Each structure stands twice: as structure tokens, then as C-alpha cells.
Amino acid sequence: MWWRPENSRGRVPLTGSPLRRWVAGAVVGVALVAAMTGLIWLVDPNPPFTGLLVLYLLAVLPVAIWWGAGPALVASVSSTFAFVLVFDPPRPGRLAAVTLGVFTATSIVVADLAAGLRRSARESERLAGEQSALRRVATLVAEGVPAADLFEAVTREVGLLWDADLVRMERYEPDGTAAGVAAWGRSAPHQDVDVRIPPGEVSVARDVRRAGGPVRIEGFDGVRGSVATEARTLGIRVSIGCPVVVGGELWGVIAVSSRSPKSFPPDTETRVARFTELVATAITNAESRAELRRIADEQAALRRVATLAARGGDPSPVFAAVADEVMSLFGADCTSILRFEDDGTATYLAARGWRDPGLRRPGTRRPSDQPATIEAVRRTRRPARLSYAGLADDDLPPSLRGEGIRSGVAGPILVEGRLWGIIGVASRGAPIAADTEERMIAFTEIVATAIANTESRAQLAASRARVIATADATRRRLERDLHDGAQQRLVSLALELRNTQAEVPNTLPALSGDLGRMADDLTEVLDELRELSRGIHPAILSESGLGPALRTLARRSAVPVELSLRLAKRYADPVEVAAYYVVSEALTNTAKHANATHAEIVAEERDGTLRLLVRDDGVGGTDLTDGTGLAGLSDRVEALGGTFRITSPAGGGTRIQVSLPLSARDGQGTSW
Amino acid sequence: MRRCVIVDDNERFLAVARSSLERGGLEVVGTATTMTDALDQVEALRPDVVLVDIVLGTESGLDLARRIVAATEASAPPHVVLISTHREDEVAELVASSPAVGFVWKAHLSARAVRDVVAAGEQ
Ligand SMILES: Nc1ncnc2c1ncn2[C@@H]1O[C@H](COP(=O)(O)OP(=O)(O)OP(=O)(O)O)[C@@H](O)[C@H]1O
Ligand SMILES: [Mg+2]
């Protein structure tokens, strides 16, 4: 507007201190009066006085409009004096008094009108600016732009509207820390956003939190703390803070600061609040959207890893999957899963995103290292969070050097109450989200369950294997005792009887006959005992090895057997015994239940496992729960870490497939 | 074919077997209860037949059979006949895979049975 002599910085027309403005107005007024006097004198040195007075208003009014009533008064007085002195009118006293009176009244009225006009113009322009800024922000909110963009836009709009030097937006974390989310500076629009103000430190954030409403801080003189220091460095004289309230809760704060102490009119807080309301709306929208998505993502991820964990067996795929999921869910740059060892080290089970993956391959040991989240978890058994921001590379634990990590969070994996290991995430940029510790629990629990399952399965298998081994040892001893004791004695006795029989004179045929029958009976008993002891333990197996023992079984089978063997000479005792029993029981069943015409045995060593196949062409319809034979076999095979499969459709024959691992297992399942 | 050595870890059986075989016309020139003992006897006595129990306590009669044949390969090796409380059909695979000429179940041991097995093995 043409009358705008405003005090916006950047424009310096009629500005300066009020006194200078006043003087400038007065000088201009006097100059105009002089010019007007000269003009009139040139036109008519003896003019009729009434017309002249009106002309002098042309000098006074602009001064009244631009500089106010004071300088206009000076102009009025000078007009009167100039007229009286230069044109020498009749009755100068009365004329001067009337002129002065009229001019002064006119000046005051016009100056007041002009000032009012200016004020309302200024006000409406400001309002218009504010409205369009609000509209722009509202549009962003409606478009659902990323929160960071919106926050940045709000700080910029507020900064420009109120002629601020620095605008910061911070979010309160649960512990009261105010974490920067956006910042705008007049001299440097791109401010460091990632600031964290501790709860107790003197700051706009702290005061807003305490007051629960808008605050105004005039100067940070004599106050300590990083915020006050920054304020002094920038020459900040006044700051106002407005709360951002989301869903009735204090979410954050917007702090507007200026170097000029009179920058913010009293209603600034209320007006900034219109922006914070928009921010709150956006946050509510974004948070509920993000929360929904996050919950959905998290549930999907949990379902995926839980499914994997439920599969049982080797938990390594669970570790790998959890590392992947955790990394993307928590927006981390790196993750690690480690198992604690008794000697203070830890073993990497999975790692993602590290610049030096060589240090972190599964199975690699990680020496004890400080300061690191993992050590904190080991000490406290609780989640830990560390910030490495600002640490020199040399001050970092060796494993983190060169990784550019700024913060990390780790959660304990507790397996049945015992601290087993950790899941850790780390970030090179923004701090890891505050709720990460809590959200991580679901994942550490799944890992813990997978481990507990594996461990209890391994322990169960080990204890079953021990039970079976003990039973086998007992049976072996029994068989040996029978062989070395009763059988040997019966054999000797039978031979002795025959010897005695041979010595009986021909004259006693009855005695000879009795002795012969006794020897035969004894031999029969011996044979039965032998069958019995063979059922207790296949002694000949340890003598001959699996191949000959299976061939013996095949040869003795009542149903014709086709045999195909690709075996090494010897295997570990439990494997040989289990394989022998599988074939022996299967052939017995075939003979007993199958009504088969033909059976087949395949036994071969492949890929570190012994594979057995026994099948017949009988009636099928096997039911494991009907007897103890097959169930016992299945137990025995599984105790050795093998698999036992039986397919036996009614009328379709029976097929038993067994695989037995040949590598010695320690039963603790520590292969991972 | 007369001279015979018996290897078994059971003393009583050795005694009974000796009298049984001798009654049948075989001369039992020696008995042994362990592998080393047996090898020494065979070396020293040069029997025609050696009866070897398949399960010699912790030692294996099958090993012994192989070693006897290996040790006497240059000269005419003795006939090794395996004996056991196990039955023929249980040990057939083992006997077949060993250098023994045959097998006699202990309860059926006699000079005649030994001769028959040797004769059958020689054919
Ligand atoms: N090869 C087969 N063909 C048909 N039916 C079979 C066969 N094997 C097993 N079965 C059926 O499955 C059941 C379970 O077999 P299992 O060996 O466990 O017990 P069992 O032979 O009856 O008794 P035992 O405990 O003495 O072995 C049998 O009772 C039989 O009905
Ligand atoms: Mg059965």
C-alpha cells in the first residue's frame, strides 16, 4: 500500500528511532511550508489571505498522514509563522490563532485517521498472510504428506509470518526429553533437527511442559544448558512456546524465537496455536494411519517368524528371519542376534546391514566390548539403549568402529528365565524409535520359544537315546550272560551226556536210550534258549556288522525277500542295532500280519545318513497304535535323530522308510 | 586227518569237547582260550584241524580264523572249523565270508561232524 511506512526489516524508508522519525517529519514539514511560501510569493507577493491558508494545508496534511500529529503540528506552526512574517496580513494575531487552531485540529484528525487506516491495512494483510499460510499447511495435512515435511513447512510458515529468527518443533518422549522434529532459521533455513533436550534443562520445551500451555521467555541470560547457550549465540531475545496437543495429550512444542525483543505481539501465542492445531490434526491422522500400518506390518512379521519357529528343528532360519523383519520394522540400519557364552563372549547367530559383515558371520565370536548395548543387557538382563552420537571413532567399541552407528537398542532373549542372548538394532541416522524396546519383546520371545523348543527337543531326544542305550546295554549283558552261562553249560552238559551215553555198555540199551533222549531234550532246550536270547539282543550283529546281519534276516524270513545293500562294513552300535531292529520287526510283521508274497529291503548309505526301506505287497492298513513293535521302532529311530515313516494304505502293501544320521550327535543340538 | 586243536574261552567245554572228539578218533593235540595262545599252538603243533569258537569272549573267532590261515599260508594251512552256540542259519553269512571250511553247532559237536564238514569243505 502506498502509505505503508512499516517497520518490517528489509525496508528502511522512514524508519529508525521514533525521535528520528519525528524530527524527520518535522523537517519535511518545515521544508514543505518553506516551499509553499516560496511558491505563493512567486505567484503573488500580496495575495488575498483567505485562499492562502488552504494552500498551506497541502504542506501540513502529508506530514500528518505520514509522520503523525506531532510533526504536523510543527508544520502548522511554521505555516502560521511563515504566512504572518512573509505576507504581513492585517490583524496577524487573530489570523495566527485561528490558522493554528484549524491546522492543529485538522492534523490530529487526519493523522489519527491515517494511523488507523494503516493499522487496519496492516492487520488485514497480516491476517491474509496468516490465512494463506494456514491454508497451505491445511492442504499439506489433507494430502497426508510425510510428517517430517509437514513439520518443516509449519516451522517455515510460522517463522516467516512472525518475522522470527529461529523456529523449532520438538516432540516429548516418554521420559520428558524433547526430541527435535523440525527446525527453521532465518539465516540458515536448514537447521540441525536432531536435537535432544533433557527434561530438566531450561528450555521452551521444559516451560511449556510445566505450564501446560503457551509460554514466553524473555532472554536466557545467566542460564546454563545447551538451549540457553544456543539462544545467546544467536542473540535470541524473546521466545514463545506453544504446545502441540494431540488427543488431549501434550505431544510436543513449537518454539518461535526472535532477536528483536518486541517481535511478538501479545496475541502471537493464540495465533500460533492455530498452526499447532493443524499439526495436531495431521499427527492424529498420520499416527493413526501409521499405527495401523505398523500394527499390520508387525503382526504379519510376527506371524511369519512364529510360523518358522513352530516348524521346530534347527532355529537358524528363525534367527535369519527375525533379523530381517526387525531391521525393516524398526527402521534400523543394522541388526544382530547373538548368543551369550559363559566366557563373556557372544556368538553371532545372524546379522544384517553391517559394513563389516565378516566380523558377524553366524558362528563368529564377539569379544566382550565396551560401551555397547549388548554388555548393558548382559549386566542388567533388561533392554538397553545407547547413543554413540558425538563419540570419536576411537572411543567406540572396536566392533563398531567405521560403522557410523549413532544409536543402538538391544533386548534380552530370555529362555526359561535364563539370559540366553540378545537381539540388537542400530541406526546410523535418526535415533531408534522410543518404543522399540517394548516392540522388540514379541520378537525376543519368539526366538526364545524357538530355542526352548529346540533345547527341550534335543534334551528329550538325548534322554530317549540314553534310555534306549541303557536298555540296549542291559539286554546285551543279559544275552552275554545267557551265552556265557546257561547256554555254555547246557551245551557242555549235552555233549557230556552223549559222551556218557557212548560209554554205556551195550547191555544197558534202556539207559543208553534215556541218556540219548535227555541229550536231545537238552539240545532242544538249548535251541529255544538261543532263540530267546537272540530276541533279547542280536549278538551276531556285533560280530558280523549290519550287512551280514540283514542278509541273515532276509534268509530266515518266511516271506521271500529281495535284498539290496549298499553299506559300509561297520557303523556305530546304536545305528546298527536300530537298523537291525527296523528290518527284523518289519519282516516279522510282514510274516505275521501282511499275508504278503514278496518283500523288499533296501539299505544304503547316502549323504551321511543310513536309509532303510522295507516294503511288502501285503494287505497294508498298519496301525502304529495297535502294537508295541512299530511304535518302539519309531521311538528308537527318533531318539537317534532319525526319521521314521510308514505308509500302509489298506490293500496297498506296507512301506517303512527310515533314515538314521550317521554323524555323531551330542544330543544338545548345538549345531547352531 | 587226525590232529586237532580246539579254541574256546570256556574251560569246561574244552574238556568235554576233547573227550567227545577223542572218542571219535580225533587226537586233540592242544586247546587254547585266547587268540595269541591259539596262534602259538597252531604254529607249534601244526594240527590238521582247528576248531574255533566264533565268539571268544571279547575276541573274534573270525579274526582268529583269518590269522591262522594267513600265518600258515606258506605251508599247508590247517582246516579251520567254526563252532558256536548260535545256529548255522544265524552265522551262515559269517562262515561263508571267512576262510573256514565250515561250521558245527556246539551241541552237535562230534568227530564225525567235524570230519563231515572238512570233507564237504574240501570238495
Ligand atoms: N506289514 C504289515 N502288513 C499289514 N499289517 C501290518 C503290518 N505291520 C503291522 N501291521 C499291523 O499294524 C499293527 C501294529 O504293528 P506292531 O508291529 O506295532 O504290533 P504287533 O506286530 O501287532 O505286535 P508286536 O508288539 O509284537 O510287534 C499290527 O497289529 C498289524 O495289525
Ligand atoms: Mg510287530
Automatic annotation (TrEMBL), chain A:
<keyword id="KW-0418">Kinase</keyword>
<dbReference type="GO" id="GO:0016020">
    <property type="term" value="C:membrane"/>
</dbReference>
<feature type="transmembrane region" description="Helical">
    <location>
        <begin position="21"/>
        <end position="43"/>
    </location>
</feature>
<feature type="domain" description="GAF">
    <location>
        <begin position="146"/>
        <end position="293"/>
    </location>
</feature>
<dbReference type="GO" id="GO:0000155">
    <property type="term" value="F:phosphorelay sensor kinase activity"/>
</dbReference>
<dbReference type="InterPro" id="IPR003018">
    <property type="entry name" value="GAF"/>
</dbReference>
<dbReference type="Pfam" id="PF07730">
    <property type="entry name" value="HisKA_3"/>
</dbReference>
<dbReference type="InterPro" id="IPR029016">
    <property type="entry name" value="GAF-like_dom_sf"/>
</dbReference>
<dbReference type="Pfam" id="PF01590">
    <property type="entry name" value="GAF"/>
</dbReference>
<dbReference type="GO" id="GO:0046983">
    <property type="term" value="F:protein dimerization activity"/>
</dbReference>
<keyword id="KW-0067">ATP-binding</keyword>
<keyword id="KW-0547">Nucleotide-binding</keyword>
<keyword id="KW-1133">Transmembrane helix</keyword>
<keyword id="KW-0808">Transferase</keyword>
<dbReference type="InterPro" id="IPR011712">
    <property type="entry name" value="Sig_transdc_His_kin_sub3_dim/P"/>
</dbReference>
<dbReference type="InterPro" id="IPR036890">
    <property type="entry name" value="HATPase_C_sf"/>
</dbReference>
<dbReference type="GO" id="GO:0005524">
    <property type="term" value="F:ATP binding"/>
</dbReference>
<keyword id="KW-0902">Two-component regulatory system</keyword>
<feature type="transmembrane region" description="Helical">
    <location>
        <begin position="95"/>
        <end position="117"/>
    </location>
</feature>
<keyword id="KW-0597">Phosphoprotein</keyword>
<protein>
    <recommendedName>
        <fullName>histidine kinase</fullName>
        <ecNumber>2.7.13.3</ecNumber>
    </recommendedName>
</protein>
<keyword id="KW-0812">Transmembrane</keyword>
<dbReference type="InterPro" id="IPR050482">
    <property type="entry name" value="Sensor_HK_TwoCompSys"/>
</dbReference>
<feature type="domain" description="Histidine kinase/HSP90-like ATPase">
    <location>
        <begin position="574"/>
        <end position="664"/>
    </location>
</feature>
<dbReference type="Pfam" id="PF13493">
    <property type="entry name" value="DUF4118"/>
</dbReference>
<dbReference type="InterPro" id="IPR025201">
    <property type="entry name" value="KdpD_TM"/>
</dbReference>
<feature type="transmembrane region" description="Helical">
    <location>
        <begin position="49"/>
        <end position="67"/>
    </location>
</feature>
<feature type="domain" description="GAF">
    <location>
        <begin position="314"/>
        <end position="461"/>
    </location>
</feature>
<keyword id="KW-0472">Membrane</keyword>
<dbReference type="InterPro" id="IPR003594">
    <property type="entry name" value="HATPase_dom"/>
</dbReference>
<dbReference type="InterPro" id="IPR038318">
    <property type="entry name" value="KdpD_sf"/>
</dbReference>
<dbReference type="Pfam" id="PF02518">
    <property type="entry name" value="HATPase_c"/>
</dbReference>
